[in-house]
Specification:
Keywords: 4Fe-4S, Iron, Iron-sulfur, Metal-binding, Pyridoxal phosphate, S-adenosyl-L-methionine. The chain has about 450 residues and is α/β, with parallel strands linked by helices. It has 15 helices and 15 strands.
């Protein structure tokens, strides 16, 4: 549906407020609003010296229930918690803040803590970065699965607000060595021409929708001429954190015209929307934004991780999936919190994650059962926990690879010993007498190839 068509969804009449970001310099004032005492506020600021914090006026004014803070799920979604890091680390950083230590001393201490938090999980730096001619790494790109390349636009490496559990937190802490980013879209296009097996490009970050229409266009337009490319995906939380991007922002109409051009060029435009809680769908502005995006021919798929204290119950997920279906979006993934950052704080055990998924899945219609999960994006691939069963007298997790670094593993079931405390693939052990998991075998008669070598 063209935006110039008489029946196209029209933007709301209110122009809304201009975007305003709040950062660490506003943190003390905002946490005081949540009723935190002086000591608690200092501990939160200490955590924010290590992990990134950013929120905006829409989230603060429209999404957070301040009467329920600090227990409100959206508050917990965006505001650091005092116990997200080990107490010794929090005390160390709080002491530096208390005595007004130099910025270099604070950064040095913060970097020591960050290094212990697995800033780039699942082999992103070592295994996923492709090369040019088998030699020089291509900055701002990842190629883990044959069909899909991830691209990190340089101007899209921030977000309208940061999630406290974000597995890409390392993109936002100001350390160049921890950051993926590139402005060289020509390198991406050349790579796609050399690798016709790649049928999908995912623009990610950060959040590509932080970019204005003219900048976003510079990255997307060159992809439209790549014949072997079937789909362009945009990974974004903008629908939840700043729906004005598609309704009242000055370039909202231009952005939607760009989406139309992608569809007109014969590409599937997959808008990968990140919703963590039903409350993010409550404002009517979100539903208006969803209607306008869908009006361009784009498909909106929804995904989020399962996060302790925010969405760790079946009713929350069932409500969220039903709402998404009602507004024409496609439930896609329930992820497991990744092994990075404050994983110990947010992770839900796999056994519990499966029960939450199963409970929610049972409460929705078939149209919402497009969702997959709970899924771990681990080093060998996306591992889904399909269930818990007893096989040959042994209690096991039944698993399979939704996607895999080694394509031969995709769709193959395997079994892991049941462990009620396990939160990640590395916590699991092979079951039924096996000494290794399938992904620990040597594929195709040899050692597993490095992605950089496999995709020169």
């Amino acid at each position: 549906m063209s935006l110039t068509h008489d029946a196209a969804p029209s933007p709301p009449q209110s122009t809304g407020r201009r975007f305003r970001a709040y950062t660490t310099k506003h943190l003390d004032e905002l946490t005081a609003r949540a009723g935190l005492g002086e000591g608690e506020r200092l501990a939160v600021r200490a955590v924010a010296t290590v992990l990134p914090f950013r929120v905006n006026s829409y989230v603060v004014d429209e999404l957070i229930d301040w009467d329920a803070a600090p227990d409100d799920p959206i508050y917990r979604l965006v505001f650091p918690q005092a116990d997200m890091l080990p107490s010794a680390d929090v005390s160390r950083m709080a002491d530096l803040l208390r005595r007004d230590a130099s910025r270099s001393e604070v950064n040095r201490a913060a970097n020591e803590i960050r290094a212990r938090l697995n800033p780039h999980p699942a082999g992103q730096m070592e295994l996923n970065v492709p090369t040019s001619g088998g030699k020089d790494p291509l900055e701002g790109m990842q190629h883990k699965y044959d069909e899909t390349v991830l691209f990190f636009p340089k101007q899209g490496q921030t977000c309208h607000a940061y999630c406290t559990y974000c597995f890409r937190w390392a993109q936002f802490v100001g350390e160049p060595d921890l950051k993926f980013a590139s402005s060289e879209v020509d390198h991406l296009v050349e790579y796609l021409h050399r690798h016709p097996e790649v049928t999908s490009v995912l623009l990610t970050g950060g959040d590509p929708m932080i970019m204005g229409e003219s900048v976003l266009r510079r990255y997307i337009e060159p992809l439209l001429g790549v014949e072997t490319l079937e789909s362009i995906r945009i990974g974004t939380k903008s629908l939840a954190y700043w729906p004005q991007r598609f309704t009242t922002d000055p370039d909202s109409d231009g952005t939607l015209r760009l989406f139309e051009e992608v569809v007109a060029a014969g590409k599937n435009l997959a808008f990968m929307a990140h919703f963590s809680h039903p409350n993010e769908m409550a404002p009517d502005l979100v539903r208006q934004a969803v209607a306008r995006i869908r009006g361009t021919g784009a498909v909106i798929r929804t995904q989020a991780p399962l996060i302790r204290t925010i969405n760790d119950d079946p009713a929350t997920w069932a409500s969220m999936w039903r709402t998404h279906v009602r507004h024409g979006m496609v439930p896609y993934y329930m992820f497991v919190e990744r092994d990075t950052g404050p994983q110990d704080y947010f992770a839900v055990p796999l056994a519990e994650a499966y029960e939450i998924f199963r409970g929610a899945f049972a409460e929705v219609s078939g149209l919402a059962r497009t969702v997959r999960g709970p899924s771990m994006s681990a080093t060998p691939g996306k591992v889904c926990i399909d269930g818990v069963a007893e096989v040959a007298g042994e209690k096991v997790f039944v698993c399979h690879f939704i996607q895999a670094r080694d394509p031969e593993l995709v769709g193959r079931p395997f079994f892991a010993r049941y462990d009620e405390k396990a939160v990640w693939l590395s916590d699991l052990e092979p079951a039924l007498g096996a000494s290794r998991f399938p992904h620990e075998q040597e594929p195709h008669g040899g050692a597993a190839p490095r992605i950089g070598a496999a995709h020169p």
